[in-house]
């Protein structure tokens, strides 16, 4: 790790087999070429993780907490990264994401203006099936390919989370890669009053396309979303009010990049007015949900009146 690096990247790769193995090697090799070089920690004991950590001189932590399906828990990964990382900024990155020097540069700009922050950004999807040749000008070649053939994804697709040390308190045991955990990270950052920054304009994050066969639920997103693990994640994101899931209010916590309080532009960190529109749209598009919330608030107020009267009578 460079003495001037402010960044620790941590990840939990899948088995290094077939196409997934190829794109994960591409991604991790791109991280160690970021200038200044970040500290990189790989979690997990899936096939190939220890080997690539040894090959590239990375820190490897084989032991991670998992649920009954064997899926690593976000809470444990973030807690261990906080303890092991040596830098003021930490970033969980999905193991299929190629990053460049602009990632470290953007985080340096953010860290110079905010003390408690979360930085996220949209990814660009690219079909990459072959190993990247890192001996030549690989960065320019991949960038050009992304600009020519890539597809900028929507705000719900979030693949990196760079945050100031100590930002997150204790987390629920969310399962990594099983939907909704990433939305919770944005919601929680907003809930604790952090500056949430959309760095989409400043950071090119190249996502190498793949299917979801590695999850065991099928090859499509909908198969994973319908799984018991994903449903449990959705329930746990409603930590502010656990009854919200059963009452149909889960959508209140499904934050996306559009909910960022600020944007990183060429002129620096600027307010993001789109977050106001996003919140208005979130609620106004669900009139029945709004009505149910209003009734709940009224009922809560009515319930508190008798309690208040009893408390006042006791104090006399």
Task: Note down, in words, how this protein is organized.
The protein has 316 residues and is an alpha/beta fold. The chain has two domains: 7-276, Spore Coat Polysaccharide Biosynthesis Protein SpsA, Chain A (Alpha-Beta Complex); 286-315. The chain is 39% helix and 16% strand. It contains ten helices and 13 strands. The chain has helices at 18-31, 49-56, 74-84, 101-111, 138-149, 181-191, 221-225, 228-237, 274-284, 287-315, and strands at 7-11, 39-43, 59-61, 89-93, 97-98, 117-120, 123-126, 151-152, 160-164, 195-198, 205-208, 262-265, 268-271. The strands form two sheets. Strands 3-2-1-4-9-6-10-12-13 form a nine-stranded mixed sheet, sandwiched between helices. Strands 5-11-7-8 form a four-stranded mixed sheet. The radius of gyration is 21 Å and the shape is globular.
